[in-house]
């Protein structure tokens, strides 16, 4: 079956005269948690098509069980454990969800900087364990990979690719303020109508909002320079043995596979080497487990609500969980809640708690009326795929931005996790369930999502195979990468033109004065005569 597909691929490749394409060898530099779940869909498809997939896996990686997988795993031993990572995540969540709302702006910033520097040092240690490990590098070089698939949330993939001389492709959602895409990928983003991610604006901005948007871009660029650019540029230069910068290395990505699509994004300019493949992990719903199906059917005409705050937020404080459970107990729908903490006392008979739920299958169930979500990209896309309106309770990372998009598209109501009360949650649920405009918008976006000439997963895999076949995609690379910032904005040309104009004006004025003087003299002469 596998080799059959592979031969088909081979035929297609030979048939279209594209040279010696065969099943390739793919090296993967993954990021953890939900990022891994997304990339795994691509890797499974690649493995299905007969490619050999090898994942460079840090020994502290939380997201996968290497024994049950069609991939090879090359485990990198790093000087910290899974427990360290889990506790770092816990600290991060606790700080973000419970402490930040009480902090002043400066305290928040200093905590964030502290956390970022912890993450950077972990990231660097992971890189160290690969690039300075001669044996591993030799093995990887001899394996002669055709492509490296990297997630820039964890830096280093591009460095390994560069060291191995292998073309690489990025897969990710965004960087804050789109700094990496803009500065390193060359993606144009006019601040007048392309809202900076995490800036909280939509594509229709008033004067003040445009100013805010522009300043947000500028601020993020400064922070990026401060926290990443200098330090990592030095590291990359040391490893590669020649002067380079982080951005220059990142900008060598052959393709950027972005985890969104026009059902989600505001229309904006993009480049031929950016491909929007949002929702590639979505699949039609499968039947539910029997016990669950019975519960869902018992909801009658009111239907069900699916509730999950994602794989990272396991439990809430007792106060919060009681508040949430009380709200849920007061709606006519049945609720399936993914929750691992202590059972709340106010839990109503219409609500059931599960350690884990088959989220995609539930969202695809005809009885599902609404989705209460933290707003992770994977969950958002499952809701778009199945056309389910949502109540968003965003917490961190890309979640506020995702919910802001869904709100602007009329498919979601947003709640603030820190200030919401029982009645807010009830109102929000009633709104998305009773007011048909939310469902209509959800169905409209779902139709847009499904009406594509090529499915997102197939497009992602096509471009990965394309890069393998052609050893890159240089024909899509904009020349912007070779320009300096003042050349890019034509500031040198403007300066030259201004200079010319100034010179012309100067000469004209000089001429005028000269003529006037001459005339004056002639007139005087005539008069004296
Ligand atoms: C934050 O403030 C709220 C009240 O404003 C308080 O209930 C809560 O305990 C505080 N959280 C922390 C971590 O100090
Ligand atoms: C979540 O559960 C863990 C243990 O299961 C506990 O240590 C932690 O305090 C809990 N967090 C909250 C916010 O209740
Ligand atoms: C929404 O509909 C439910 C019944 O399905 C009803 O109990 C609830 O009051 C309605 N809410 C609003 C705001 O109309
Ligand atoms: C339904 O929601 C839309 C969008 O928020 C709003 O404009 C409209 O007034 C709502 N309709 C009702 C009956 O509440």
From TrEMBL:
Primary subcellular site in the record, as a coarse category: membrane
InterPro entries: UDP-glycosyltransferase, UDP_glucos_trans, UDP_glycos_trans_CS
GO cellular component, one term: membrane
A Gene Ontology molecular function term of the record: glucuronosyltransferase activity
E.C. no: 2.4.1.17
Secretion signal, residue range per the UniProt entry: 1-23
Bilayer topology annotation: Single-pass membrane protein
Alphabetical UniProt keywords: Glycosyltransferase, Membrane, Signal, Transferase, Transmembrane, Transmembrane helix
Classification via Pfam families: UDPGT
Official protein name in the record: UDP-glucuronosyltransferase
Broad enzyme group: transferase
Keyword Glycosyltransferase in annotation: yes
Catalytic activity, reaction form: glucuronate acceptor + UDP-alpha-D-glucuronate = acceptor beta-D-glucuronoside + UDP + H(+)
Taxonomic lineage: Eukaryota, Metazoa, Chordata, Craniata, Vertebrata
Cellular location(s): Membrane
Ranges annotated as spanning the membrane: 493-516
Source organism superkingdom: Eukaryota
Transmembrane is among the record's keywords: yes
Family from the record: Belongs to the UDP-glycosyltransferase family.
């Amino acid at each position: 079956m596998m080799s059959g597909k592979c031969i088909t691929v081979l035929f297609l490749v030979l048939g279209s005269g594209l040279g010696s394409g065969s099943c390739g060898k793919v090296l993967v530099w993954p990021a953890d948690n939900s990022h891994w779940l997304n990339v795994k869909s691509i890797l499974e498809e690649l493995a299905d098509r007969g490619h050999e997939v090898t994942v460079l896996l840090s020994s502290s990686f939380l997201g996968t069980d290497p024994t049950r997988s069609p991939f090879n795993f090359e485990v990198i031993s790093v000087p910290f454990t899974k427990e360290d990572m889990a506790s770092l995540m816990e600290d991060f969540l606790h700080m973000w969800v419970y402490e930040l709302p009480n902090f002043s702006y400066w305290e928040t910033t200093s905590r964030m900087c502290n956390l970022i520097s912890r993450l950077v040092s972990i990231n660097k240690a992971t890189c160290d364990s690969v690039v300075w490990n001669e044996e591993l590098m030799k093995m990887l070089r001899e394996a002669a990979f055709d492509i490296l698939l990297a997630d820039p949330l964890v830096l280093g993939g591009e460095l390994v690719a560069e060291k191995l001389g292998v073309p690489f492709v990025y897969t990710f959602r965004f960087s804050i303020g789109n700094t990496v895409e803009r500065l390193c990928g060359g993606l144009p983003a006019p601040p007048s109508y392309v809202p900076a991610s995490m800036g909280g604006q939509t594509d229709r901005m008033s004067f003040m909002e445009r100013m805010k948007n522009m300043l947000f871009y500028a601020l993020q660029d400064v922070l990026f320079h401060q926290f990443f650019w200098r330090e990592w540029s030095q590291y990359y230069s040391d490893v590669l043995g020649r002067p380079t910068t982080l951005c220059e290395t990142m900008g060598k990505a052959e393709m950027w596979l972005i985890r969104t699509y026009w059902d989600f994004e505001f229309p904006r300019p993009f480049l031929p080497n950016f491909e929007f493949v949002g929702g590639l992990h979505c699949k039609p719903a499968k039947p539910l487990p029997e016990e669950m199906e019975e519960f869902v059917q018992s909801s009658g005409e009111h239907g069900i609500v699916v509730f999950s705050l994602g794989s990272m937020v396991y439990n809430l404080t007792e106060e919060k969980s009681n508040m949430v459970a009380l709200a849920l107990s007061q709606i006519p729908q049945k609720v399936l809640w993914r929750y691992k903490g202590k059972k709340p006392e106010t839990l109503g008979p219409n609500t059931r708690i599960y350690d884990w739920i088959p989220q995609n299958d539930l969202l695809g169930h005809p009885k599902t009326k609404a989705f209460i979500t933290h707003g992770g990209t994977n969950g958002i896309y499952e809701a778009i795929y199945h056309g389910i309106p949502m109540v968003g309770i965003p917490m961190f990372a890309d979640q506020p931005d995702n919910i802001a998009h869904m709100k602007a598209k009329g498919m979601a109501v947003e709640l603030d996790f820190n200030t919401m009360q029982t009645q807010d949650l009830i109102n929000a649920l009633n709104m998305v369930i009773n007011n048909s405009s939310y469902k209509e918008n959800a169905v409209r976006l779902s139709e847009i999502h499904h009406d594509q000439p090529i499915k997102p997963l197939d497009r992602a895999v096509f471009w990965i195979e394309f890069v393998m076949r052609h050893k890159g995609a240089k024909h899509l690379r904009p020349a912007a990468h070779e320009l300096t910032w003042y050349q890019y904005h034509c500031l040198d040309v403007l300066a030259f033109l201004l200079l010319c104009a100034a010179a012309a004006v100067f000469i004209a004025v000089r001429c005028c004065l000269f003529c006037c003087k001459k005339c004056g003299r002639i007139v005087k002469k005539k008069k004296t005569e």
